[in-house]
Amino acid sequence: MHNGATEAASWTLAADLMARVGVAGKLYELHPGDGQYDVLAIAPTGELANVHLNRAGSIQVGEQPNERVVAGFEKWHELGSGESSLGSLGDEIAALAGMDADSPSGDEATIYGVIAEVMRLSALHRLGWRCHWGEVVQRLTKLRV
User: Fold this and answer.
1) What is the DSSP letter of 104?
2) Are the CB atoms for 69 and 58 separated by under 8 Å?
3) 44-50: long-range contacts, CB 8 A cutoff, minimum separation 24
């Protein structure tokens, strides 16, 4: 199980990457291996996820069997503690995944940014909140004006 800093770092990284993929991109929460893994998966074109942010393990880019491990488990600690930069990691992942930084982002990218900020505040104040993707997005997307 990961901590609040990992939760905040993973959502901040996911929000940054989703802002780069544009409106076609999709974000999924996956728990393969009967819940052994806790993954935020990004599908830049909305179809096949090729970025996997495994909060209980590594960060991977690419499709099996040719996926590349960009960072190991220790990276989550470094990101959560501020020892490592989310921006430079986001740049590296975006380049490997072929994400275009100039893609126009939609309302979902704003929602991901809000989730990331709430998770950051939860970690800062040690509230222990977790974001379970499906229920949050369903509620937030209904709030569009």
Assistant:
1) P
2) yes
3) 44/97, 44/98, 44/99, 45/21, 50/97
For CA atoms 61, 70, 5, 111, give the dihedral sign.
Answer: negative
pLDDT tens track for 87-115: 888 889 988 888 876 666 667 777 888 88
Sheet holding 59-61, edge to edge: 26-30, 39-43, 51-54, 59-61, 68-71
Q: For residue 53, which phi and psi values (nearest 5 degrees)? A: -100, 90
DSSP conformational letter for 50:
-
Token output for 129 = 């909140």
Rounded CA-CA distance 116/136 in Å is 12
Strands (E), 7-109: 26-30, 39-43, 51-54, 59-61, 68-71
Token look-up 């960060």 returns: 59
- 43 Cβ contact partners less than 8 Å away, ≥ 6 residues apart: 25, 26, 27, 28, 49, 50
pLDDT tens by residue, 7-65: 888 888 998 898 888 777 888 888 888 878 889 998 887 777 789 999 888 899 987 77
